[in-house]
Amino acid sequence: MQRVELNGSVITTRMSGNVLYFRANDVMTALGYKSRSKRKAVLSFVSPEYVTIFSAIWSDGSDQPQTKYIQKNGVLQLALNKLTTAKPFEDMLFAYLDRMIDAEKETSRRRGPR
User: Residue 74, class by beta-carbon neighbours within 10 Å (0-12 exposed, 13-18 middle, 19+ buried)?
Assistant: First the structure.
């Protein structure tokens, strides 16, 4: 689990296999969705294939049993619906993804050829 910050909000991420997921509630808070519209926003704007509920809950208690996580495409769907926050969110997201990719490349380089 890692955390990134946008607009004063902390967004929790987690990896599953090679896929990066973002906690949906955190993303919607950072994008400015109001609490009563958050559930509706995920149902209305995020394609179901980008939404995941993990059965394993973090040992630190940071997730509730039905916490939704969304893939980057779902994050972009939410951000594009909130155009006033889309550009800063896009910049943060792509910078974060670049760092993750660079770290993976460095790890692979250190391992050497297989």
Answer: buried
